[in-house]
Write a structure and sequence with these properties.
With 463 residues, this protein is of the alpha/beta class. The chain has 13 helices and 20 strands.
Length: 463
């Protein structure tokens, strides 16, 4: 079977399989290779980035007339989901292509930056990582958010972008770095969850968005992947795991907590609705997950006549004082004429944060349900009864962040692949925590909600 790279007489040729070829030829700005394990994803990434920088075809070295058909000098990004994967997969592949095979890169390990050779002079310009360079690749993991925010880049290769450790916020950070140059992105990954990659990339491509091109294929499209190993996995793994990890398909993985959420429109049996003007007589509830770096809120309206709830806004606020947060929340509600009957703040242990809010919002209360599992059950019950629906993201209401959390909120699995009681990365789901507090609050206030609305119960505070 041919290897990806063929070196003969000082000339390099890429032997791309069909899935790699489709991505190589795709002209769209955002191209994604979603494939089974060992399908040839990470090994392909550096070559795509090399061509994006210098131009060219499947051959190297390039002839003189190909130089500079790429994006040219400047900053580029190569990021993967975790530092371990960076060390074990992305970095070795990148070094092999840029330093060893093509001799156009020089890596500064301390700064995780690769200098790019000037194709006109044939030289490297820098003596140290902080010196001016013709071009550089900034290599990072998605957990190093500051690194992803530090450049104005011309293109990016993102490996294992579908993992939980590569959050929506990291994807958004990369897009911001590319916006000035309208830079292209290559994403390479195996499916791991039903989060932002499915919702914001794959579905957009399926719906005809001309900026996106997605290729999905199984491990065996790589001619070097053993068919016997593929069949062994089919026979021994749970169906969902085989379809995700060997066929490159999105499946609902074991352990998903809100598996009753149907990611579709209400008229098709789902839980999503187009945003609409909320009737004035409806009452509102807000859940707040307090915390200086991650102040999250969940805003929900109650259609009392039909006993149905609508989540229409979520936020993840930057660092502000409690007073600034409270005044901003009240201003938003008052501007729209929303009658927020309860602001449910924090877990039982977050008493001081709750007291701080009560200085500015007098109907800020402790959730009546303290147990995490009981709060989760309350939301699951509403989902199963189709008594809770969620506005689509309109660019201002933050719902994409919530949908990503819903799709990745899961329990840790044991060695047999069965869900345990422990929630995976529980401390990162601030929007859903705010939702638990909000929905828990309705269980205590439901009977009085109509009276509060009738009596014109308004926002206030102790001043």
């Amino acid at each position: 079977m041919p290897e990806l790279v063929d070196v003969s007489n000082g000339r390099i040729r890429l032997n791309l399989h069909d899935g790699q070829t489709e991505i190589w030829d795709a002209p769209e700005r955002f191209v994604f290779m979603i494939a089974g394990t060992q399908g040839g994803k990470t090994s392909f990434g550096p070559w795509w980035l090399l061509r994006e920088i210098y131009g060219g075809t499947q051959y190297w070295p390039l002839t003189d007339d190909y130089w500079m058909r790429g994006r040219g000098g400047g900053d580029y990004i190569a990021a993967t989901s975790s530092y371990d994967l960076f060390k074990l997969k992305m970095l070795p592949e990148t070094l092999n292509v840029f330093e060893h095979l093509c001799n156009v890169g020089r890596y500064y390990a301390g700064d995780m930056v690769m200098e790019l050779r000037d194709p006109v002079t044939g030289k490297f310009h820098a003596n140290r990582a902080t010196d001016p360079m013709w071009g550089r690749i900034i290599l990072r993991s998605a957990t190093a958010k500051a690194g992803l925010e530090s450049a104005t880049a011309k293109a990016a290769w993102l490996d294992e972008v579908g993992q939980d450790e590569f959050p929506l916020s990291a994807w958004e950070a990369v897009i911001r770095r590319l916006s000035l140059n309208q830079g292209r992105v290559l994403g390479t990954t195996t499916p791991y969850n039903l989060g932002w990659l499915l919702q914001q990339v794959v579905k957009r491509a399926q719906h005809g968005d001309k900026n996106y091109h997605v290729v999905q294929f199984s491990s065996t499209l790589n001619p070097n992947f053993p068919q016997a190993e593929f069949e062994r996995a089919r026979e021994t793994l749970p169906g969902w795991k085989f379809r995700m990890f060997y066929m490159g398909l999105f499946e609902r993985p074991a352990g998903m907590i809100y598996c009753d959420f149907v990611d579709d429109k209400r008229e098709r049996g789902g839980h999503r609705v187009e945003p609409f003007e909320i009737p004035h007589e409806w009452v509102h509830y807000v859940g707040i997950d307090p915390g200086a770096p991650n102040m999250a809120t969940w805003w929900m309206a109650h259609d009392i006549a039909h006993d149905v709830y609508y989540v229409y806004r979520v936020t993840m606020e930057p660092k502000k004082s409690t007073r600034e947060h409270a005044e901003e929340f009240k201003s938003y509600a008052n501007r729209l004429g929303y009658n927020v009957v309860l602001w449910t703040v924090g877990a039982k242990s977050e008493e001081q944060q709750r007291i701080d809010f009560q200085d500015y919002i007098h109907n800020a209360v402790e959730p009546p349900i303290h147990d995490v599992e009981a709060g989760i059950d309350r939301i699951i019950g509403l989902l199963r009864q189709h008594r809770i629906f969620f506005f689509e993201d309109d660019g201002t209401n933050g719902m994409d962040g919530l949908f990503d959390e819903v799709a990745t909120y899961s329990r840790e699995l044991n060695e047999e692949g069965e869900a345990t009681a422990k929630i995976k990365n529980k401390e990162t789901f601030h929007r859903l925590d705010a939702g638990r507090y909000c929905v828990a609050g309705t269980s205590a206030s439901y009977e009085d909600a109509g009276a509060m609305a009738t009596d014109g119960y308004q926002l206030g505070g102790r001043h």
